[in-house]
Here is the input.
Amino acid sequence: MADFVSIIIPNYNGATTIARCLEAALASRYPRFEVIVVDDCSSDNSVEIINQFPCKLVRLEVHAGASRARNTGAAQSKGDILFFTDADCMLQEDTLALACKALAAAGSDVVMGGTYTRIPFDNTFFSLFQSVFIHYSETKRRTNPDYIAAHAMVISAEVFRDKSGFREDFLPILEDVEFSHRLRRSGCKLALNPAIQVRHIFNFSLTRSLVNAFYKSMYWTIYSINNKDLLADSGTASVELKTNVLGYFLMVLLLPVFFITHSTTALVIIGFVSGINLWISRRLLLMFYRTGGSVFFIAAALYYLLLYPLPVGAGAVLGAIKNLMRTAKLEVNP
Here is the structure.
């Protein structure tokens, strides 16, 4: 008999996406599953929409964040296997079947991850850029990835409860990264199967893309400094992105030097840094081309190389400053 799967979806003001999320989840071609939505005190009409679907709705009494919502859903679940996803993600019809097959082959002590489809639900430029970037970053390390993202996390219910679930006294994001690192330290193995996919609804504009990059970079930096893995190749906090940001700001510093002094040395360094950056990012750039063709490739490459590093770098600087201020405050008031 097939394992019983509990799909757990945290929701906070997800009225614009939750219906599509639930339609897709309930259309899964898998014999035994339930869908649990945990509403984190939404102020929109999410609950009215959720109540239109044959799923289990759990409502938190106070707004407590995604970690509490996921843990609450797990506590209310009946499944042998837990499949975590988000309210703006759409399972494919075969996602559950592929997830269960992969987990069974890997072993119950393995935490299995999936990723986004390369093409998102809203196939506009900035959403497509983000979906390709995340898909590439999450799938390049399929054995022993640094973390498993909670938009497609497959874990046995026994392991999840034994490891105490997601940490609730944590940053507003990256709880899945912290959980993954804790799982690995406790002896669990992490694995990524790129066939396990969900389609994300981004609704990204230029502004939303840049703000998202800044916000995530800030919290990644805070977490990475404290975790002592600032330079690690960690999913979307990839070595490609970090090299791109460092190279970008180095060139920003060197270009004025070249224009003022006409220094050949500065020009050579700029060319060398650009060449290294292009070489390190070549597989990501190739995926841009393979996904969207030449026009999208040119636009995505220019955006990634010339604009995207700015909010990522600014977020990293602010994250480092916030971490220093926090450390200083702890030293003054231990």
Notes: The chain has a mean pLDDT of 94. DSSP finds twelve helices and eight strands in the chain. Residues 282-306 form the longest helix (25 residues).
